[in-house]
Amino acid sequence: MDTIGWDDFIKVELRVGRVVRAEPFPEARKPAYVLHVDFGPELGVRKSSAQITAHYRPEDLVGRLVVAVVNFPKKQIGPLMSECLVTGFHDADGAVALCVPDRDVPLGTRLL
Q1: Is 59 helix (H, G, I), strand (E, B) or coil?
Q2: Which of 25, 33, 40, 55 has its CA 20 to 30 Å from the CA of residue 6?
Q3: What is the chain's Cα-based Rg?
Q4: What is the predicted pLDDT for the residue at 80?
C-alpha cells in the first residue's frame, strides 16, 4: 500500500451533504441515479451520478446524509454534469453501499 502525507490528505475535501432529490438516470451506461445533494450555504446543492441502485430506491435516499468529494473537477457523464463524487464501499457482490455519518452533523462539515 502506498502511503500519503497529511498535505496530500487535506487536499481532498470530503464534506457531508443531504440528498434533497434523487431520480433515475436512464442515460447512464450502468444503472445509476442522479442525486441532488445540499452541502449547506457555503457550497449549495450539487449534482452527482451514483451507481447505488442495488441497495437504494430514489424515494429512500431523499433526506439521507452522504459523504462526498466536492473539489474534483466537474465531469460530464452523458447529459449530466457531475459536480461532486458521493462515496461508498463495494459489498461482497460488488454493489455500492453509501459511506454515511452515523449522527446528524451540519451540512457542509468537512471530514478531517
Answers
A1: helix
A2: 40
A3: 14
A4: 97
pLDDT of 73 > 90? The answer is: yes
Q: Is the pLDDT of residue 67 over 90?
A: yes
CA distance linking residue 90 with residue 44, whole number of Å: 28
b/e per residue 4-34 (b: at least 16 CB within 10 A) = eeeeeeeeebbbbbbbeebeebeebeeebbb
Q: CA 19, 22, 26: angle at the middle one, nearest 5?
A: 150
CATH architecture assigned to 13-98: Beta Barrel (2.40)
Name the one residue in this structure whose C-alpha cell is 470530503: 14
Rounded alpha-carbon distances, angstroms, from residue 84 to 49, 65, 81, 95, 104: 9, 14, 9, 20, 20
* Chain centre to alpha carbon of residue 79: 18
Measure the CA–CA gap between 28 and 51, rounded to whole angstroms: 9
Dihedrals phi, psi of 48, to nearest 5 degrees: -150, 145
Q: Which of 26, 84, 89, 82 is nearest to 58 (CA)?
A: 26
